[in-house]
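Data card: per-record layout.
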Amino acid sequence: MDLNKIPQIKHTDKNNFFLFAGPCAIEGEDMAMRIAEKMAGITDKLGIPYVFKGSFKKANRSRIDSFTGIGDEKALKILAKVSKEFGLPTITDIHKESDADLAAQYVDILQIPAFLVRQTDLLVAAAETGKTINLKKGQFMSPESMKHAVQKILDSNNEQVIITDRGSMYGYQDMVVDFRGVPTMKQYAPIVLDVTHSLQQPNQSSGVTGGRPELIGTIAKAGIAAGVDGIFMETHFDPANAKSDGANMLHLDLAEKLLTQLTDLRKTVNSFEDIKL
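The structure for this 277-residue chain is written out next.
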């Protein structure tokens, strides 16, 4: 995967981690623009290659009355406007084969949700758009098994593939990150750590997913130390009232402090010599 092939990506010469960040879902134009403007300023200041993240729809909801989106094309057009206004690449997730061609008209990276990463037809449809593909590791999958998901993209004549680890299920209502998987998956593709979804507490009796956002910094710093290539995080200026996954988002006001710490840590990690046994 060549990061420089992602349209409008900046700061690739800084030897920093790259970042996928934004709200869980596109709730409206004003909120998307507000978050994008803030994050663009921070990442330019710190020299972080940045991709704005936002789901144009949420298909994997616990309850039928959960927020799913504001309309597919309406949300995708907002993502396109973010890209144009701030000169940023964008990423969104897709859930069925017909989403691939639709979303590819508006965004630069197509993301395959963790629950769907074994769906061959979906992966092939995404790969055939020619867009960069971000594969979320299934919560139920081993790091080693992700090589098969990556190979489906490669066999579809697309070498632009990334893996994002979002933790593994531990019991019914908790997620854990096994950092032993980082060097394993780096053999197959660049590896990103999702530091917000890996702190989810799914399957709550209320039907609303919980989370442990106070541990975002801990997981993110551990990921950089372990050698991940990128960080994925969801952020919002009002997580308590976000329409999706607010319980595990980082407050937008804390983003600069965290990303500054991660950038400093990355510089230290870059100075280390690899230990090979």
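Known properties of this structure: The chain has a mean pLDDT of 93. Residues 29-46 form the longest helix (18 residues).

See the next section for split statistics.
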